[in-house]
């Protein structure tokens, strides 16, 4: 699918903004525990799969290099903005602007973990998707890249953010939370986002053909 340079620039700008928005939301939501059928997880499990959906569509429509450009341009702004936002709204409560005057090592660790996990997970997702995207079955590439990308992203994030954390609950339960978080992400991605990926791909391709 060929895009004009203007359409490509607009699409990349929109994707960069979307990635930053989801990272900020997920870094905030991961601080809010959730009990799901008796298992510990966080609300962040429901927001982060959107990034993999956006990345897979990028690779499918524009190729591997544009997807990597999105990651490169997202990393630093997302790290800074997610730290600021998470400090202001730590554990779901507004702390006031004065909270920014002190270095919050707990939130900084979460932001840094998110930074590393995002880069690793997205690079794996792009690599796997690019290798499989020529297959006749359109669903194989997004399914395989989602399984592997989310696995690396989830366990990298929780191990870096919460292993021996200052938060006793997260330090004790991070393995359980990461496992349930991954299962939730996988269920949402394969049952909801995979069909959504197919529908969006069809809509975008028809829109591009009209343009």
TrEMBL record:
Its main location: membrane. It holds the Pfam family Vut_1. It comes from the Bacteria. The keyword Nucleus does not apply. It is found in: Cell inner membrane. Keywords: Cell inner membrane, Cell membrane, Membrane, Transmembrane, Transmembrane helix, Transport. It is a multi-pass membrane protein. The chain crosses the membrane at residues 12-30, 42-62, 74-94, 106-126, 138-162, 182-204. One of its GO terms (cellular component) is plasma membrane. GO terms for molecular function: transmembrane transporter activity. Involved in the import of queuosine (Q) precursors, required for Q precursor salvage. Belongs to the vitamin uptake transporter (VUT/ECF) (TC 2.A.88) family. Q precursor transporter subfamily. NCBIfam families: PRK11212.1, queuosine precursor transporter. This is Probable queuosine precursor transporter.
């Amino acid at each position: 699918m060929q895009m004009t340079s203007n359409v490509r620039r607009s699409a990349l700008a929109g994707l960069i903004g979307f990635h930053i928005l989801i990272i900020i939301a997920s870094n905030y939501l991961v601080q809010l525990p959730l009990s799901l059928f008796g298992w510990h997880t966080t609300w962040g499990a429901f927001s982060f799969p959107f990034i993999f959906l956006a990345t897979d569509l990028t690779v499918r429509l524009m190729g591997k290099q544009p997807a990597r450009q999105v990651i490169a341009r997202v990393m630093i702004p997302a790290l800074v903005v997610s730290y600021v936002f998470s400090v202001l709204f730590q554990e779901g409560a507004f702390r006031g602007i004065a909270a920014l005057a002190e270095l919050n090592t707990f939130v900084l660790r979460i932001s840094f973990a998110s930074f590393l996990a995002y880069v690793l997970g997205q690079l794996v997702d792009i690599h796997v998707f690019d290798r499989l995207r020529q297959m006749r079955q359109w669903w194989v590439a997004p399914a395989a890249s989602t399984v592997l990308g989310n696995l690396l992203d989830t366990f990298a994030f929780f191990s870096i953010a919460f292993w021996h954390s200052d938060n006793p609950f997260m330090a004790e339960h991070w393995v359980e939370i990461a496992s349930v978080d991954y299962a939730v992400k996988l269920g949402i991605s394969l049952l909801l986002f995979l069909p959504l990926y197919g529908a969006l791909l069809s809509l975008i391709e028809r829109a591009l053909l009209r343009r």
